[in-house]
Amino acid sequence: MSDRDYIGEIGLLSTSGPLVQSTHHYDYLIRATSTKTVVKNTVDVQAQIGQWAGTMAADLAQLKNVVQWQHDLIEYNSTYQAYLLEQLSDEEFAEEAEKYAYEPQEIDVEQLAAGIERLYGLTNIAFTPSDICGLFRCDHDLAVRAVERARETYPELSHLVPKEG
Amino acid sequence: MIATSVCSSLEAEKILIRARKFQVQPPRKDPKIGKMVFPFKVSIFGVALIEEAYESDVILYRECSHRAIGDELRGEALDGFARKPFGRERVAKGSGTHKATFVDMRGGVYAHVEIAPRHLLEANSPEAVSV
């Protein structure tokens, strides 16, 4: 008798799925309450937890990116203030500014739109296309196109892009 | 010519910026221009006014940009960049009730409407979201 048949026979099986495909035939997580018992293959549970952890890691990376961008912005602003107060010469300022200068990267518009949507979902802040440029280090026109896609999911972003057509 | 629609833009040798909030942004190496530019962002009744136009042979960053002396952009938020670091901001009377920040930008400037003026947004005007 297979492990699946055995668990089914004793009335514990309440999930469907690739139980018998497990390489660990007798590796199950069983949750029992007074009204219900759920049996889940450990491999499936691991996969689900892994997927959740992956989403969390991507969100964390996204938020770290925001923190890094804001940190750079504050640092650059301090440098600019020092320049305006004549504590830095033109040459010194140009040298400092060079450290913060980024080169816009080629990013797939769908990928960027997904990033904008996720960021809006996480923070509820409607970052403008110029914010998106700094945050994702991309070209302005690309940022506008990506916000246009993202507004299909979040109509709240409509005021940031030209009307369709 | 006063432009208020999202994504309308202007370009000139010298531009006067007026707004209640002025923010500098970290520089970027613009591939179209081939050198470092100094981006900015303004908000709350932002205005960009051309004070000195480009020579006629200067190729624009965006072909449809306004370029004549006196052309003006208005928006709740504007963004853009200058090819040289900006000068010091000054605060002066900006309207009947509020002061505003004024910044002179020279050496080639691009400005663009990011969010249409507040009164158009509040009125849900199609102009607020059309070019």
Walk me through the structure.
The complex is a heterodimer of chains A (165) and B (131). Chain A is mainly alpha-helical and 165 residues long. Chain A folds into 2 domains: 3-45, no CATH class; 55-160. Chain A is 59% helix and 6% strand. Chain A has helices at 3-9, 42-84, 90-100, 109-123, 129-136, 140-153, and strands at residues 28-32, 37-41. Chain A is elongated, with a radius of gyration of 26 Å. Chain A starts with a helix and ends in a 12-residue tail after the last helix. Chain B has 131 residues and is mostly beta strands. Chain B has one domain (2-129).
Could you give a quick summary of the protein structure above?
The complex is a heterodimer of chains A (165) and B (131). Chain A is mainly alpha-helical. Helices cover 59% and strands 6% of the residues of chain A.
Largest sheet: number of strands, sense, barrel closure of chain A: 2 strands, antiparallel
Number of helices, counting only DSSP H or I runs of 4 residues or more of chain B: 1
Number of strands of chain B: 8
What pattern of helices and strands is seen along the backbone of chain A?
HEEHHHHH
Chain-averaged pLDDT of chain B: 86
Count the strands of chain A? 2
Distance between the termini of chain B: 14 Å
Question: Could you name the key traits of this structure?
Answer:
heterodimer, A: 165 residues, mainly alpha, 2 domains, two-stranded antiparallel ribbon, 6 helices, elongated, B: 131 residues, mainly beta, eight-stranded mixed beta sheet, 1 helix, globular
What's the structural blueprint in terms of helices and strands?
The complex is a heterodimer of chains A (165) and B (131).
Chain A: H1 3-9, E1 28-32, E2 37-41, H2 42-84, H3 90-100, H4 109-123, H5 129-136, H6 140-153
Helix pairs in contact in A: 2-3, 4-6, 5-6
Chain B: E1 2-3, E2 9-19, E3 21-24, E4 28-30, E5 35-52, E6 72-82, E7 90-93, E8 99-115, H1 118-122
Parallel strand pairs in B: 1-6
Antiparallel strand pairs in B: 2-5, 2-8, 3-5, 4-5, 5-6, 6-8, 7-8
